[in-house]
Amino acid sequence: MPTGNAFRWRDADAYLFDIDGTLLLSPDRTHRYALHRALLEVYGLETTIDGIAYHGKTDPGILRAAAARAGIAPGVIDQSMADALDVVRRYAAEKAERFRPNVLPGIREVLDLLRNAGKLLGVSSGNLESIGWIKLKSARLAEYFEFGCFADECELRVDIFRKGISEVRRRLGPDATVCFVGDTPDDVRAAQDVGGRIIAVGTGIFKVEDLAAHGPDATVTCCSELLAL
């Protein structure tokens, strides 16, 4: 359902997609296990990310929340974060064949439509870069995207989205318009904070009405609905 009658979703110059819950779902849990391994190897924590509100968060942010919940001091978390992220990358690379993502409804059709219209396509994800591309390649979606902005150097989603805007305008010029596509309130807020448009899709854990309450430019239950707008 379009949130505002003036919003024409196909009119942006570039489209930046979130990965998890927007483009695909990963029932294999390999990414989750990589985070658990980092918590164990680096912080000595035999714990999981269960109970952490991780949807819409970045990999560094998830690790920080889990470590803080276990009582690790902020300074210790910061000091070891780079090592922890290296463990996440290493484990995911070693287990790359275990990633079995499912592409969500309408994604290929929307990506084909936008690519055929000459739009610039990228990803803006809270994943670490190497993990994001493993998922996209496993789902046979990587070929659609010309670049990605990830969480390797950005713990906050808004900073990832800001990098996305900057990269689009570096490629297309300072007046290029950007539309983000995401499945969480964090996606909506980050897009609004950086001056982009945002389509919220209800293919993650958040209901359409919950996403609509944050004022995205459009809200749909899945990307298939965009084809009819």
Quickly count the helices: 8
Number of DSSP-assigned strands: 8
Top-tier CATH class of the largest domain: Alpha Beta
Biggest β-sheet description: 6 strands, parallel
Q: Strand share of the residues?
A: 5-15%
Mean pLDDT: 95
* Shape field: globular
Structural class: alpha/beta
What is the name of the CATH superfamily of the largest domain? HAD superfamily/HAD-like
What does this structure look like?
This protein is an alpha/beta fold and 229 residues long. Helix content is 42%, strand content 13%. The protein is built from 8 helices and 8 strands; from the N terminus they run ββαααβαβαβαβαβαβ. It has helices at residues 30-43, 59-69, 74-94, 107-116, 129-138, 157-172, 185-193, 208-212, and strands at residues 14-17, 24-25, 102-103, 120-124, 147-149, 178-182, 197-201, 218-220. The strands form 2 sheets. Strands 5-4-1-6-7-8 form a 6-stranded parallel sheet. Strands 2-3 form a two-stranded antiparallel sheet. The model has no long low-confidence stretch (mean pLDDT 95).
Features:
229 residues, alpha/beta, Rossmann fold, DNA polymerase, domain 1, six-stranded parallel sheet, two-stranded antiparallel ribbon
Secondary structure blueprint with pairings:
Layout: E1 14-17, E2 24-25, H1 30-43, H2 59-69, H3 74-94, E3 102-103, H4 107-116, E4 120-124, H5 129-138, E5 147-149, H6 157-172, E6 178-182, H7 185-193, E7 197-201, H8 208-212, E8 218-220
